[in-house]
Amino acid sequence: MVTVGLLATLNAKAGREDDLASFLKSALPLAQEEDDTIAWFAIKIDGTTYGIFDVFPGPEGRQSHLDGPIAAALMDKADDLLSSPPDIKPIDVLAAKLPS
């Protein structure tokens, strides 16, 4: 069961779109290692806008993820890859369909 999540929107610097996409794809193994990250998605919204959507069983798992290696790597690369700071919103999950 998931109750909370994160929705992060990332705007790539001009010419760095492919680098941001590659960075996001490279984070998948890190997400797979997090027990409380029930689902994790790296997404492309349009030509320069990307995002991360992930869900957790509770606030502790979400905070652990925010304190973990993906967030640290993103903040380390933000000045190089992003045209603006990441917009990271905590969300509440109202309903979900997940594989069993």
> Mean pLDDT score, rounded?
97
Task: Give, in spatial order, the strands making up the sheet with the most strands.
Answer: 2-3-1-4
Tell me the overall shape: globular
Helix content: 25-40%
Distance between the termini: 10 Å
In short:
The chain has 100 residues and is of the alpha+beta class. The chain contains four helices and four strands; from the N terminus they run βααββααβ.
Could you characterize what this model shows?
This protein is of the alpha+beta class and 100 residues long. The protein has helices spanning 17-26, 28-32, 59-66, 69-81, and strands at residues 4-11, 39-44, 49-56, 87-92. A four-stranded antiparallel sheet has the order 2-3-1-4. It starts with a strand and ends in an 8-residue tail after the last strand. The model has no long low-confidence stretch (mean pLDDT 97).
Identify the notable features of this structure and list them briefly.
100 residues, four-stranded antiparallel beta sheet, alpha+beta
Topology (elements, then pairings):
Blueprint: E1 4-11, H1 17-26, H2 28-32, E2 39-44, E3 49-56, H3 59-66, H4 69-81, E4 87-92
Antiparallel strand pairs: 1-3, 1-4, 2-3
